Amino acid sequence: MNKMKSLLTVLSILSLSLAFIPISSARASYDPTEQVCEGAGNETTGPVCGAVDEDPVSGSNGVINTVANIIAWAGGVIAVIMIIFSGFRFVTSGGDSGKVASARNTIIYSSIGLIVIVIARIIVSFVIGNLK
Description:
Layout: H1 2-19, H2 33-38, H3 63-91, H4 97-129
Helix pairs in contact: 1-3, 1-4, 3-4
């Protein structure tokens, strides 16, 4: 039983840590166009100096990315709440094997749900990043 509690504790900590990992596309720390556009003022226009707007649907602040973020955060919050609730159910089961199994299954399924949410968010970020 101690091994099961240790496993559940590790899964809970892992699930909580995964829920708060921000998913975003990688950004370069050095922008080579910065020096070109720095002294140009308003005379320089075009895609190099940022005069062209991003796509409002698939851009980094577009509708798809915003909706994916909201769904991922909502799903993550619900999964973490379910893990906490199942932990309480597990502790208060009083040794009833049916309640213990139900709580354990809920923790496992919630943890799997968190992993699926993280993977789905990574896939959405990858696809949006390659649409350009």
